[in-house]
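Continuing the series of single-chain predictions for the mutant panel. This is the parent chain; the variants come on the following pages.
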Amino acid sequence: GNNRTWKLLSNILQRPFQLDVSLVCEVVEHIETLEAATPERDTDGRLGSILIFVPGWQDITSVIKGLEITLKDRRKQHGWARNRSWNILPLHSMVPQKEQMRIFNLEDPHSGRRK
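Parent structure:
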């Protein structure tokens, strides 16, 4: 019944969170692949930004490293990656506010650079 469901859910929520960095990288790659297959972008030519939320600094740095490796590896294999760069901007209390404000800067149109 309901009590069993609550106990099961409570047990699941008490487990330590384990971020799957490879899954995050695969999702970003999937977005890039889909957009490369359908080149209609915003009228100004800018690529959209991708926001990735993770719980802490260690996970943020793990995702950054994973994304950097993913893009480097994909440049050897996939057309979409050859002219692409990612402007990875971490937001965390450990990052100076001036650096965090960079998220509001626009990328140059047709630059192939995504935030």
